[in-house]
Give the backbone structure.
Amino acid sequence: METNEVFEKVKNLFVEELGIDADKVTMEAKLEEDLEIDSLGIVEVVMAFEDEFNIEIDDEELTDVGTVGQAVNLLHSKL
Amino acid sequence: MKTALVTGGSRGIGKGIALELGKSFNVVVGYSSSKDSGEEVVEEIIKSGGTASTVEINVTNIESIEKAFTAIEREYGGVDVLVNNAGITKDNILPRLKEDDWNDVIDTNLSGSFRTSQRAIKHMMKSKWGRIVYISSIVGMMGNQGQANYAASKAGLIGLSKSIAKEMGSRNITSNVIAPGYIDTDMTAFLTDEQKDNIIEQLSIKRIGKPEDIANIVSFLCSDESEYITGQVISVDGGITS
């Protein structure tokens, strides 16, 4: 799967799962500051990623994920 | 209509809760060994115009929990209300308490409730609504002779519930504990009349409790009206701890 395909899926999850404005979801967007996702929201997104991509994400892998782009890259590397 | 799962719902307090919730929810009666009694509870709910079914669920076994939840999700969509009621006793005073008896009681009463709660929470988070009720016991707060394992497991539920309440409040999921006193069920059937009289003497309300006494407050805690109540421990004990 190409990076841009992963991004589109990720964007859909943000919009559908958390009701975030599609325009706000860019590769550069910061999860907490720009998208205003709280810690529980991050957990919800991760659970949605795991279901959508049929993967398991360890908590350690998430420590460096602060932007949508970093999440996309993590997912891309796991597929 | 929302769906409620009551573990250990075929007998005793769980049965009382299942019957009461049957007035407002689809009810799934979870049983581990008493299938026939579970079916009777279901029949009673259906006869009163409700919707109900049974599911086999052994809360010590993660695969059994997964199987039960998958079946409920297929039939009703998901568990919106979880009543963690399944519990066992293996009483003995400390010097005679076997480690297996300690572990079994903790595994069923405390770890079992952790497992079902964790499995249920995903759907509740998604739907941004959920109710979890733990059936603890006054002995979780008071202790009791011969019940170190049972009391510890019931005390543990309080910490579990309060933590979940804090974690999930922003998603309209509440988590509360009911601490019953002496309730007339199989679990207290071993009491002699003399022992019962001694207990009644300590109560403000001069009778042993009924499963309905517990069911009424559980029903309220599972309703929309209780949305501002979370992380609480409510004793329903005829005043024995007052």
Observations:
- Residues 106 and 153 of chain B are 5 Å apart (CA to CA).
- Chain B touches chain A at residues 122, 125-126, 167-168, 170-171 (CB under 8 Å).
